[in-house]
Amino acid sequence: MTFILGLTGGIGSGKSAATQWFETQGIQVVDADIVAREVVAGGQPALQQIQQTFGDWVLLANGELDRRALREHIFKEPAARQQLEQITHPAIRASIIQQLQAATSPYAILVSPLLFETGQHELTSHTLLIDANEELQIQRAAQRDDQQTEQIKQIIAAQMPRLQKQRMANDIVLNDGPLEQLYAQLSSLHLQYLARSETA
Ligand code: ADP
Predict the structure, then answer these.
(1) Most-buried pick from 6, 35, 167, 171 (CB within 10 A)?
(2) Listed residues 58, 76, 104: the one ending a domain
(3) Taking all residues of the chain, what is their mean pLDDT, rounded to a whole number?
(4) Residues 150 and 96 in one domain
(5) Atom of ligand 1 nearest to the CA of 20
(6) Same-domain check for residues 38 and 100
(7) Residue 53: which domain range?
(8) Per the structure, how many domains does the chain have?
(9) Model pTM?
(10) What is the pLDDT of residues 108-153, one digit of tens each?
């Protein structure tokens, strides 16, 4: 796989909607959020490392990660977050690379809400930001997840500011209209990406 598109955007910007459209065009997608969960699934080496580092209390009775307990621990001891990320980040990265390499579509997509924040954009050839103003982000995410506005605002505040992402992205799609408008913009980019993947 030579041409890899990194797709990102803040919560509620329309990343999933965009990703689903690319999938209808036959483009294979690796989702960094899913990979992050896979690498700490029961029996995975990263989970064993987490257990060795923090103790048996990180595991539930069924051998799965006790996410809540770990989250609370990290909240109380910020240094623990770094320890955890030293275990999970290399595992996530390795799995993403492996899955992207295995893709057989003309090009592949890595979708990640924290593409730039985590340096995952370095694994891609080109980046696309799905962009929407904060009001729309909140409205969409609240509708989708039944989440409180305050919680969504907190998530937005923890993500890289919109302006900075706009500066870093190679392409930007403003998703502030109906879905058809999003798809039309993606459609013209898709043709460009196909052309690039042929010459890459
Ligand atoms: P993200 O993955 O970036 O968090 P989603 O793609 O899940 O965002 O979009 C959030 C919600 O808003 C979803 O329910 C989605 O269907 C809806 N949505 C996204 N873009 C549009 C749009 N242009 N018009 C209407 N609804 C949209």
Answers:
(1) 6
(2) 104
(3) 95
(4) no
(5) 6
(6) yes
(7) 33-104
(8) 2
(9) 0.93
(10) 999 999 999 999 999 999 999 999 999 999 999 999 888 789 999 9
CA-to-CA distance for 164 and 169, rounded, in angstroms?
9
Can you give the pLDDT at residue 1?
65
Nearest CA to ligand 1 atom 14: 144
Q: Looking at 59-124, list the stretches that DSSP marks H as alpha helix, in order from N- to C-terminal side.
A: 67-76, 78-102
Residue 187: CATH number of its domain: 3.40.50.300
CA of 30 to the centre of ligand 1 (A): 19
Structure tokens at 189: 């980019």
Beta carbon of 178 within 6 Å of any ligand 1 atom? yes
Q: Does ligand 1 have an atom closer than 6 angstroms to the CB of 19?
A: no
Residue 137 CA: nearest ligand 1 atom is 10
* Ligand 1 atom 5, closest CA: 14
Percentage of the residues of the chain whose pLDDT score is greater than 70? 99
Residue nearest to atom 21 of ligand 1 (CA): 179
Q: Which ligand 1 atom sits closest to the C-alpha of 14?
A: 6
